[in-house]
Design brief:
Number of helices: 8
Distance between the termini: 41 Å
Bound molecules: zinc ion
Oligomer: single chain
Structural class: mainly alpha
Order of helices and strands: HHHHHHHH
Strand content: under 5%
Largest sheet: none
Helix content: 55-70%
Radius of gyration: 21 Å
Amino acid sequence: MASTTFASPPSQSHGAHSFLGKLNGRWHRWALRAFVIIVVAHWAEHLVQAYQVYVLGWPLHQARGVLGQALPWLVHSEVMHYGYALIMLVGIWTLLPGFVGRARAWWLAALVIQFWHHIEHALLQGQAITGRTLFGAPVPTSIAQLVIPRLELHLVYNTLVFVPMMVAMYYHLFPSASDAAASRCSCALRSHPASS
Ligand SMILES: [Zn+2]
């Protein structure tokens, strides 16, 4: 049988029919929505925790967000914090190929910041496992924590990741004509004539 009888092109690992290809193609719309819901829920927990400390005046140890009030071990578990930072890093990374043009630049910025945020959590996790802390601190301490306390620092980190993600989402949902033409997913809410 001659190879010319094959009607469809051979499948590639990064082709539109692979799992990653679908995730960044026709599944991008729903994958992105599900991921953003998880990210917003987590960011909201950090905001609630800051509210509990600064507005309600609760002691830091008791200010555990919403989920943490019912499940205190969640907030006090370094594995949970590391796991979340990893999920966020993998999620941003996995959904990056679906972004094009201006949206991609902003999504990439979120990826770079989350990569560093994840390194900080890896340092905390390492200290929790080995039982030895950095800088002679009484509790696991990350590098930027030398400058900013933990509650404020992670609120800042999550905000620094969240803002470029939202800018990227805006440009992804309302793309320029050229970005819309280059896009493989159905996320865009405003349709453009196929010109570039
Ligand atoms: Zn998309």
